[in-house]
Specification:
Blueprint lengths: L2 E5 L4 H17 L2 E8 L10 H22 L6 E7 L2 H10 L4 E6 L13 H9 L4 E4 L10 E5 L4 H5 L1 H11 L2 E7 L5 H20 L4 E6 L4 H10 L4 E6 L13 H9 L4 E4 L16
Parallel strand pairs: 1-2, 1-4, 2-3, 4-5, 6-7, 6-9, 7-8, 9-10
Antiparallel strand pairs: 5-10
Length: about 280
């Protein structure tokens, strides 16, 4: 992680995204770039697009001064003003860099077209393979010391393991494998147990500290959110569906529920983002 791209519209919600970016930048020394996207018509009816841009530049200078005082000296903060659709411009900016991530809050009040779980964020998730960190309004981000690893019997569930290992080593974090048998028959439960053992072995092999929590016959999202509520310095890592699926909404209903309910930040990654090249098998036991 070398570049953190943050959509920003000067709303309270967007500022929360910047707060999460500050946490990540402090822990990784990554640079931060704030992205403001102008529409065809200015967000402020009494201003022209040129006047809006001038006002935004002035406000950005103030904000960057504030951020610079609270970040390590090696972290650079800048901004860019673009025109177009928010999700397209944010994705394009992130993909212009190597080793970048996107950090966004649940929704913005002025510069965003819809609430966070409307089309804008789903389009971001569907349009990029860049990792996306999200945080809900009202959550205060803290230094990340724990990574929650939701695990079920799907292919995608285990595909986030290499990224989680990388982050755990970078942050000195503990990984928490969290799962439940809700809705599973005996065969699926045996498969789940095999996958738990597989992931535990992978974390041991990579010298990552972990704990495992298995609930019985409880709703998966309720289990994850309750567990996360006890770890305020944690992050939940989840995956989107396979990019080959011909659908705009490439994140399932359970994941959307988690994004709406999570009391801690959520990292969303594409399953094929990192290739697994060692003995960790992700196509079944």
């Amino acid at each position: 992680m070398k570049h953190i791209i943050v959509p920003y519209d000067f709303s309270e919600e967007a500022r929360n995204g910047v707060a999460l970016a500050q946490v990540l930048a402090t822990q990784t020394s990554a640079d931060i770039q704030l992205v403001y996207v102008q529409r065809k018509q200015p967000d402020f009816a009494h201003l022209s697009l040129a006047e809006e841009k001038q006002l935004v530049e002035q406000e950005f200078q103030k904000l960057i001064g504030e951020l610079g005082a609270s970040l390590p000296k090696e972290v650079k903060v800048d901004y860019i003003i673009k025109k177009g659709k928010v999700y397209q411009e944010v994705v394009a900016q992130a993909e212009a860099f190597n080793d970048s991530v996107i950090v966004t809050s649940t929704h913005g009040a002025s510069g965003f077209e819809e609430f966070f779980l409307g089309s804008n964020t789903l389009k971001i998730l569907a349009s990029t393979e860049v990792p996306v960190y999200t945080i809900r309004h009202g959550i205060t981000p803290t230094p990340l010391r724990d990574i929650i690893f939701p695990l079920d019997t799907t292919f995608e569930s285990r595909q986030k393991a290499p990224i989680v290992v990388k982050l755990a080593k970078l942050w000195g974090a503990t990984v928490h494998i969290v799962t439940t048998t809700d809705g599973y028959d005996a065969e699926e439960t045996r498969k789940l147990q095999a996958y738990i053992a597989q992931c535990e072995g992978y974390f041991v092999k990579n010298d990552v500290q972990y704990v495992t929590y298995r609930a019985e016959r409880e709703d998966f999202i309720d289990v994850i959110t309750a567990y996360a509520g006890k770890l305020p310095s944690s992050l939940v890592a989840i995956t989107t569906r396979d990019k080959s699926v011909p659908s705009l909404f490439m994140i399932g209903e359970k994941a959307q529920r988690l994004l709406r309910k999570s009391p801690v930040p959520v990292l969303v990654v594409v399953p094929t983002l990192v290739r697994i090249t060692d003995s960790f098998r992700t196509q079944g036991a």
